[in-house]
Amino acid sequence: MSVYKITCVASAVSLLVACGGGDNTPDRGSLIDPAATLTTLTAAQIDAATAASGLQAISGKAKCDVKVVGLNYNTIGVNSEAANASGVMLVPTGTACTAAAPLLAYARGTEVSKVRTLANPADGETFLLAAVYAAQGYAVVATDYLGFAKSTYAYHPYLHADSEASTVIDSIRAARNAAGAVGASLSGKVVLSGYSQGGHSSMAAHRAIERDNASEINVVGGAHLAGPYNLSGSLKVPTAVAGVQFFVPFLVTAWQKVYGNVYSDVKTVFKAPYSDYIETLLPSPTLTYTTLVTTGRLPGAAGETPNQARDALFQSAFLTDSQTNNSNALYLAAKKNDLTGWSPKAKTLLCGGAGDPTVPPAVHQKVAKADFDARGLTNVTSVDVDPFVQATYGPGGKAPTDPTTAAFATYYGGYHGTYEPPFCAAQAKAFFDTVK
């Protein structure tokens, strides 16, 4: 889950661009359109943008130019029916980057804009991938998911582990299918990562590949960043997370479409006027995080707390039952999409920031790590980047503590979507360098 802005990076980039296992679908990962090279970002251009934004202290200077390639590929939907998804492939190129590259399959954070694609060099998340990974010699493929951009799927099955996994797995196949045409030399080694929703997606893909596709896809490492791995446990937490008015209705309505039994009447879940349109609101073809609120389509005006936004949106009886009743349909759906109870074979890194108000590590990362530890796994490590976030963005090098101040609102408003991602990306890159 992520209001993924990387604001300072995106603004700098604007200067730059101005100048199959287990199913019977044989063509999963095949390209629908020829892989299209959109542009090539030179190392000098990347360095200029990272220097201007401050990212270069994390990314380092670029070693490679980066070719930005648009993909549109075949995949499957939640019932293994034929579907498609789009995405981007970032190809390291240039005289210093001729060696065969490991392939990073990446899953992005939550998006509410249906038209957004990562096949856009001005996108902040895409540029972060280019600067931290592709410009350092990694080939990258990143999916837009079902229901976004060029995908014609009827909806986005948000935080549905199985379809997240299949979409990521088929992006790997698509990148391999595109490699020859776009001049990419791949080593055969694959690493997996994703941020926020993408951390859930990349871990789901990691689990599925090792279970079903190990002979086809050689996963050598997984770095899962700020992901909601303990969805059922998160429903029990009485305090709403930052961004609750976006993420929870997206989850509830998506799981209703997937499972058909989360509720029998939308009005028993959502209050008016939201109940009149919430089932078709997300993702939106025209609205963004900001305009969903400013137009009144979702609550969350300035000064409104997450609890207030949640209580304006949801019926109290529904909230109480989902928090307290282990037979509640939403809770049971969440259990199906938890990512505990499995044992990764490849080395695995979990990353997050202790102060994250949207995907709190105490609810997700620490629970996942404890679950891995309980089975005696020694190949899973966990890192907290909160000290880096505080030192860089906290007033006086510390997180603000007074919730009534503007500094508090700014700091925690930017934590999950802007401050935390580059630090976790840097941790992932350092981790991947040990296994590539």
Summarize this entry quickly.
By secondary structure, this protein is of the alpha/beta class.
Level-1 CATH class name of the largest domain: Alpha Beta
CATH architecture of the largest domain: 3-Layer(aba) Sandwich
Shape: globular
**Mean pLDDT figure:** 94
Please give the share of residues in helix: 25-40%
**What is the distance, rounded to the nearest whole angstrom, between the alpha carbons of the first and last residues?**
28 Å
Largest sheet, order of strands side by side?
1-2-3-5-4-6-7-8-9
User: Which runs of at least 5 residues are low in confidence (pLDDT < 50)?
Assistant: 2-23
N-to-C SSE string, H for helix and E for strand: HEHHEEEHEHEHEHHHHHHEHEHH
Total strands: 9
Number of helices: 15
CATH structural fold name of the largest domain: Rossmann fold
CATH superfamily of the largest domain: Alpha/Beta hydrolase fold, catalytic domain
* Total number of domains: 2
Strand content: 15-25%
Q: What is the rounded Rg?
A: 20 Å
Main sheet properties: 9 strands, mixed
Structural class: alpha/beta
Describe this structure in words.
It contains 15 helices and nine strands. It has 436 residues and is α/β, with parallel strands linked by helices. It has two domains: 7-230 and 339-433, 3-Layer(aba) Sandwich (Rossmann fold); 232-336. The protein has a nine-stranded mixed sheet with strand order 1-2-3-5-4-6-7-8-9, sandwiched between helices. Strand 4, helix 4 (124-132) and strand 5 form a beta-alpha-beta unit. The radius of gyration is 20 Å and the shape is globular. Mean pLDDT is 94; it is low at 2-23.
